[in-house]
Amino acid sequence: MALEKLAPGALKAALEELDRLFAHLPEFQAAVPGEDRMQAVLCETATRLGDNFPYFHPLYAGQMLKPPHPLARAAYALATWINPNNHALDGGRASSAMEKEAVAELAAMFGWSRHLGHLTSGGTMANLEALWVAGQLQPGKTIVASSQAHYTHERISGVLRLPFAKVDADDHGRLDCQSLERQLDQGGIGCVVATLGTTGVGAVDPLPEILKLRDRHGFRLHVDSAYGGYFRLAGNLAPAARAAYDLIGEADSIVIDPHKHGLQPYGCGCVLFRDPAVGRLYKHESPYTYFSSHELHLGEISLECSRPGASAVALWATQRLLPPVPGGEFAQGLEASRRAALTFAGRLKADSRFVVPFDPELDIVVWAPRAASASKVSALSQRIFDLAAEQQLHLALIRLPASIFRAAWPDLDADQPTIVCLRSVLMKPEHETWLDRIYAILSAATDAATSS
Prior knowledge:
By secondary structure, the protein is of the alpha/beta class. It folds into two domains: 89-281 and 295-321, Type I PLP-dependent aspartate aminotransferase-like (Major domain) (Aspartate Aminotransferase, domain 2), CATH 3.40.640; 329-451, Aspartate Aminotransferase, domain 1 (Alpha-Beta Complex). The protein has 13 helices and eleven strands. The strands form two sheets. A seven-stranded mixed β-sheet has the order 1-7-6-5-4-2-3, sandwiched between helices. Helix 4 packs across helix 10 (309-321), helix 5 (123-137) crosses helix 6 and helix 7 (177-185) packs parallel to helix 8. It is globular, with a radius of gyration of 24 Å. The chain starts with 5 loop residues before the first helix and ends with a helix. The mean pLDDT is 94.
């Protein structure tokens, strides 16, 4: 069977324990409108959900969609029987404490024993908070990010009414420090966003060089590692990526998404600040919210108000089972994904039908089928993508500057400035053992596309 079914059994025993903890309350029967029709509607819901790509299966190798751990599913569902709101402590005492503990473990992963941080609905909100703080501390100054950084930074800057500028990326999709330095020399930059790694190609920006520029120019440094943050734990990174991750704790703020590599259901992001004193920027008055305890209410350090305590419970439970530490079982899963990407890229490079512009730095592989020109490459990529999907192999497409292929494909006829390439995110540990099947389908789809 394809779908994991451990969670329901584990949940049943946990529900009985939770019910026992509230047994001192007077007996009552909760009203359940439509109780007699629940099963039928739930089965209809399952039928509707069948109209999805099989994100849970190893043959899905397209976007960043990693199945939650069974424990995370069960813990999230368990928490919904309480339905805590991690804004004020009277909305979720236990789940707020679990959030603080889980977030502290994430901060420790980056070397921070002192920090300020909390969970968010995802990376977009987490990045918004980081750039909002940057704008409060450097009012009116420009936010800068690589041209390969996530588009959300430009949009967020617009929401915050802060100037935004892009700097060039190099031929590996990483922020180009010479381009950044030219921008810095013009003045007016308040915050630089470094990405570890980019959601497009998995590039890891050169943090050691960026930090040297910060020493000279004094900007605030935000690291967007929504996708790649957990690779701090991986022991099989290449030297350049390793050097960047080793210095991630020097950033002023960090974003990481547990709902990507952290085995969590959507949505679960996290924003972290190195200096807890930035909490003063969140200070606000609430006439009825913060009176149940003198402890910190998470709503006092968050731009979001209502936030699902279930996300915190699921993350806390998962980290109890699989601590985010180097060499642990969780880290070994990341290393398996990285090995899968390196192996897959190696097979593509050895195949004369394909061109790989650069080795993967994390677990994203980008490649292009050989054709006479950039426009024909783009059309062929689309055809392979469609044919592979017919055989249940689900890849992704990405449009990249043709210049990225300069070194690997010097004789390419760049008749257009961009190329549509094929892309895979091999983020499931199972991908490593499914590479033969994946490659066989890709090969057959490529043969069919080039012969048609």
